[in-house]
Amino acid sequence: AQSVSQHNHHVILSEAASLELGCNYSYGGTVNLFWYVQYPGQHLQLLLKYFSGDPLVKGIKGFEAEFIKSKFSFNLRKPSVQWSDTAEYFCAVNGRNAGNMLTFGGGTRLMVKP
Amino acid sequence: KAGVTQTPRYLIKTRGQQVTLSCSPISGHRSVSWYQQTPGQGLQFLFEYFSETQRNKGNFPGRFSGRQFSNSRSEMNVSTLELGDSALYLCASSRSSLTEAFFGQGTRLTVV
After folding, report:
1. CA distance B23 to B8
2. Among partner residues B4, B55, B102, which is closest to A99 by beta-carbon distance?
3. Is A60 in CB contact (< 8 Å) with chain B?
4. Residue A113 CB: number of other CB atoms within 10 A?
5. Which H or E run contains B68?
6. Do A32 and A97 touch, CB atoms closer than 8 A?
7. Contacts of A101 (CB under 8 A, 6+ apart)
């Protein structure tokens, strides 16, 4: 069975600090990888995705993530966070043979202090 | 273009009752998936429908069921509601297989 682990449950940063959120997955096959963000009171939105190709993917709002196959990791990064990045972030995995079924990590709540 | 629409947004039901939630996917999307979000268990996959057929099913009891219509709209039904079914139920639509999912605002179900 596939699983996704997000190491940090809560992260507090000051504005302009750099961000890295960890995500590791377990799956016995080829995967697609996603990061979703849920701003307070809003629906889940896609930040970025990896299907194949360049393992360093860039998403919206200055976020990027790197897929390291040997480490089963897909960590999310942003060089300089803003107060508006305060949200909950979810890493998700979709096995290539599993249709559109997503397995989500437990989420990381990020608070950015102005 | 319109996003994924879920109705109703909020529901309060009594234990033992049944409930039906509705989801209208983005136009042209053929896949609809349902998820349950709770503070304790996080986001858990319920099932996926593609072209009116259930393609994947999560680890939920048979009280949870769903269907998809020919226009891709989907409903999920929960029978014999339990207090633990209180959650935010999210619907996501995708154009086809192995494409990104777009989520609706969710239906918040409270069972009392």
Report:
1. 9
2. B55
3. no
4. 11
5. strand B64-68
6. no
7. A94, A95, B33, B45, B48, B56, B58
Is residue A18 left, alpha or beta, with left meaning phi > 0 and alpha meaning psi from -120 to 50? beta
In B, what residues contact A, Cβ < 8 A? 3-4, 31, 33, 35, 42-45, 48, 50, 55-56, 58, 90, 92, 94, 97-106
For B20-50, the pLDDT digits (tens) are 999 999 999 999 999 999 999 999 999 999 9
Tell me how far CA of residue B56 lies from CA of A62, A98, B59, B109, in angstroms.
Answer: 34, 7, 10, 23
Taking only the tens place, the pLDDT of each residue in A42-84 is: 999 999 999 999 999 999 999 999 999 999 999 999 999 999 9
Query: What is the spatial distance between Cα A24 and Cα A69, in angstroms, rounded to a whole number?
Result: 10
Say if the Cβ atoms of B103 and A103 lie within 8 Å: no
Phi, then psi, of B38 in degrees rounded to 5? -130, 155
The count of other CB atoms within 10 Å of the CB of residue A56 is: 11
**At residue B1, does pLDDT exceed 80?**
no
Report angle CA A10, B38, A114 to the nearest 5 degrees.
Answer: 30
Contact assessment for residue B20 and residue B109, using Cβ atoms and an 8 Å cutoff: no
